[in-house]
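User: Can you model how zinc ion sits in this protein?
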Amino acid sequence: MVSYKELGLVNTREMFAKAVKGGYAIPAFNFNTMEQMQAIVQAAVETKSPVIMQVSKGARKYANPTILRYMAQGAVEYAKELGCEKPEIVLHLDHGDSFETCKSCIDSGFSSVMIDGSSLPYEENIAVTKKVVEYAHQFDVTVEAELGVLAGVEDEVSAAESHYTKPEEVIDFSTRTGCDSLAISIGTSHGAYKFKPEQCTRDPETGLLIPPPLAFDVLEAVEKKLPGFPIVLHGSSSVPQEYVKIINTHGGKLPDAVGIPEEQLRKAAKSAVCKINIDSDSRLAMTAAIRLHFAEHPEHFDPRQYLTPAREEMKKLYIHKIVNVLGSDGKLG
Ligand SMILES: [Zn+2]
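Assistant: Here's the modeled complex, given as C-alpha cells:
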C-alpha cells in the first residue's frame, strides 16, 4: 500500500472548490509516455497551473501500472526541479471499470479515481460508485462518477450513441453515492471523430465540418440542481484542423476528424465545470510533429530526433489549453 501523499501528489477536493468559485477548469491530460509526461509538467510549471495527469486502463496496459506510478512520482520531483516549489499534481484513473481496478490504483498511489458505471442500470451505477467512494475516502482519495453516456471510442470505452445526463437524477445520485465530482454528458464525445458528418453542417468555403453545439441547457439544469458541485467534461478535444491538415498532407488519413470548438469549452470552464479532459489533441500534436519531421528529415532514425519536436508541440498545445481555454494559469497555491 502506497499513499499518494508520500509521493507528493494531491487529491482534487481543494483544487475543484477553487476552480468552481474562480470560474476556471483544471486541465486533465492523459499520458502514456515519458514525452507526454514531460510536456505536461513543463506546461503546468511554466503557466503556474494545477494539473491532473490521468491514466486510462489502456495506458496502464500499454505502459505498465508500476511504471506509470513512478512516472507520476517523477513528475512531482521534475516539477520541483523546474522551479515549482509546491506543485499541485493529481494522479487520476480515467474510466475505472470496476471496484477492483479503482482499489488497485488507490492502493498503488493514485490520488483520485473515476468509477465509470455510466453504462450500467442506474441502481447498479449507484451501488458500484458508492462502494468505490467508501473505500477511497478512507485514504482521502477523491472519486469522479459518471451519469449519462458519451458517444465515441476511448481505449476500451466505446458507445455508439450518447445519452444526455438527466438533470432530475443528479441530486439523488450524488447524495446516495457521496462522489466528489460528476462527469456529465452534454454532447462531448471521445476520440478524434466526435461527430458524424451528417450531424454537422459543412463550411461552404473551407469544406470543414461545423459540429452541433453542446447542450448548455442540460449543464445549466444540472448546476441549478447541484449548486457549486464539481462537474467534469470528458471527450473535450477540439481536434485542431492545423494538425489534421499536417497529418493528412504528410501521408496520414484522418478524413473529417472533428472536435469541440474551443469557445464552447471556454464557456463551460467558466461554469461549474471544473475539470476538462483532453487526450486526442495531444495525440494529434504528437503525430503531426512526427509526420512533419520525417517528411523534412527522411534520413533520421534516432527517436530523440523526432520525439523532441513532438514533445515541444505537445507542450505548446498544453500551454494553449491552460491559458486560452481553461483559464487555470496562475492558479497554483
Ligand atoms: Zn472519458
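A couple of observations from the model: The pocket of zinc ion is lined by residues 95, 154, 190, 234-235, 277 (CB under 6 Å). Residues 248 and 254 are 6 Å apart (CA to CA).
User: Helpful, thanks.
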